[in-house]
Write a structure and sequence with these properties.
By secondary structure, the protein is α/β, with parallel strands linked by helices. It has helices spanning about 5-10, 25-35, 40-50, 60-65, 80-85, 110-120, 135-140, 155-160; strands at about 55, 75, 100-105, 125-130. The protein is globular, with a radius of gyration of 19 Å. The N and C termini lie far apart (about 60 Å). Residues about 1-15 and about 150-165 have low confidence and may be disordered.
């Protein structure tokens, strides 16, 4: 496209691919989150105690570096829908039906929002995600396992996240 044509074209900032205008990822995320209630860390912990599935969709490298939430199912994002769809022959045995509460989490709470919407589209109406992801869980002082000390981490914050005091 020439500079002159680009300057006159109203669609330069709204590209299309044989259909509706494309949106930016932050807009996609905002739209996704508008359709359901997200869970803060302490609420997610209460839901888990009440029988909700906590599902970690992070890749192995993040789990190895930052740790895990005890009792969470590890189901990587690329197979999530097959493992959690109650009608799938590949579903995880812990999936009991479409009314089951499920809290998805990633490292910081972005990818999990899109994953929660995908699960809701499969009929899992009680699927949600953890606001702030694993990082928020850890910062709330909730239990984590296998976390590795990170360079520059504040010693008091690390102790608090592992259940210790100031």
């Amino acid at each position: 496209m020439t500079d002159e044509l680009a300057a006159r074209s109203p669609t330069v900032n709204a590209p299309t691919v044989n259909g509706p205008a494309l949106i930016r990822v932050d807009e996609l995320l905002e739209r996704a989150r508008a359709g359901y209630q997200r869970a803060e860390a302490r609420e997610a912990a209460r839901l888990a105690v009440s029988g909700a599935l906590l599902v970690d969709i992070r890749p192995p490298a993040q789990r190895a570096e930052f740790g895990e939430i005890p009792g969470a199912l590890i189901i990587e994002r690329n197979v999530l829908e097959w493992r959690l769809d109650p009608t799938s022959p590949y579903r995880h045995p812990a999936v009991t039906g479409p009314d089951q509460s499920i809290v998805i989490f990633c490292q910081a709470g972005y990818a999990s929002s899109l994953a929660a919407v995908s699960l809701q589209q499969l009929g899992l109406s009680h699927a949600t995600d953890l606001v702030g992801g694993f990082e928020a869980w850890e910062q709330s002082g909730l239990p984590v396992t296998n976390s590795q000390p990170r360079p520059g981490a504040d010693a008091a914050a690390t102790a608090a996240a592992q259940g210790g005091g100031p």
